[in-house]
Design a protein that fits this description.
By secondary structure, the chain is of the alpha+beta class. The protein is built from eight helices and 14 strands. Helix 2 packs parallel to helix 3 and helix 5 packs across helix 8.
């Protein structure tokens, strides 16, 4: 019997990696196919970053944003992670029959506002309407093009022993926001998504040094999944200091009640950065001067021990292996 696709295949963990490897990489392999957030394409005299992303969010409106804002931020951030200034976007809508026109306009308005904030233009698109029950409200796919800084070349396979690992702010907040917005657990907390565009934050780092080895946005699967991806891609080990990982108290409280690890909760406005140790403090200082990265923090370092593994020093001083991301990561955000 043929293997069937499960929700775990879209959750950003091990099953997602297996799906990409067994199906998409098998059939789409070419010199430009990338495991990074965007492909970098060479043209005479310039390099362009090119990416696409699909957004399925339930609920479509949540504290701190909606699916429209998310679709712009997600694509802008994927381009930014390649050291590219975002320039142009396209968007495709699949809308369920019966979806409220007022809600759709609110989504489009959020996209307009966020695109203007980022300095990008939405230049093309497509609209399809599906029958009732075929789509959960509205799905959005966005594609983006950006101009790569000629001296920047971050990539997931460039982490090196001795690099410091930086997060640009508190982790797990978006995933926690979506979980509470569904009101499935009866937990009340004033938590707002970190959803934000991050090109200005990347530019602040590149103004310190172009020698940044890895920049990755910690979306589906959270910072923990990103760390395991980079450890595997670069063939290195990672050591974290739990006491240095920024997690808001309310997020930590919700995670404690539900048995969740904040490192595996999605972020939509946070970067995980691997940079040479000699620049790390200056990068953090620069980030703290920019909106949406005021709480930037060094959380660990890269090592040549235990390649492909992430070891964490706990807050009581012991060491433990951070469990690798498994099948379906909860809460499911897309």
């Amino acid at each position: 019997m043929s293997e069937l696709i499960t929700l775990a295949h879209g959750a950003g963990g091990r099953k997602t990696s297996e799906l990409i490897e067994k199906v998409f990489k098998k059939h789409f392999s070419n010199p430009n196919l990338t495991a990074d957030d965007a492909a970098v394409l060479e043209f005479p005299g310039k390099k362009l970053a090119f990416t696409t992303d699909g957004f399925i969010v339930s609920p479509a409106e949540f504290p701190g944003g909606n699916i429209g804002k998310l679709s712009i931020c997600g694509t802008v951030n994927d381009l930014s992670c390649m050291g590219a200034k975002p320039l142009y976007l396209s968007c495709a809508f699949v809308i369920e029959e019966g979806f409220p026109m007022e809600t759709l306009e609110h989504i489009a308005e959020a996209m307009e506002k966020t695109a203007a904030e980022c300095g990008v233009q939405i230049c093309a698109g497509d609209t399809k309407v599906a029958g009732r029950g075929q789509v959960d409200g509205v799905f959005i796919t966005t594609t983006g093009i950006g101009l790569v800084d000629e001296k920047a070349c971050p990539s997931g396979d460039k982490a090196k022993p001795g690099d410091k690992i930086i997060v640009t702010g508190d982790v797990g907040r978006h995933g926690c926001t979506i979980l509470l917005a569904r009101n499935e657990y009866g937990i009340e907390a004033d938590i707002t998504s970190d959803c934000a565009p991050l090109w200005t934050n990347v530019k602040a780092m590149l103004d310190v040094t172009k020698d940044i080895h890895v920049i990755r946005d910690a979306t589906r699967g959270g910072a923990g999944s990103v760390l395991y991806e980079i450890a595997e891609q670069s063939g290195v080990g990672i050591k974290l200091d739990a006491a240095q990982i920024p997690v808001r108290g309310d997020v930590k409280g919700v995670c404690g009640m539900l048995g969740l690890e904040p490192l595996y909760l999605a972020c939509e406005g946070r970067l995980v950065v691997f940079a040479p140790a000699e620049y790390a403090d200056e990068i953090v200082a620069a980030l703290r001067k920019v909106k949406n990265s005021e709480a930037a923090q060094i959380i660990g370092e890269v090592t040549d021990e235990l390649p492909g593994r992430v070891v964490m020093k706990t807050e009581i001083g012991t060491k433990t292996l951070l469990p690798a991301p498994g099948g379906e990561l909860l809460p499911r955000i897309c």
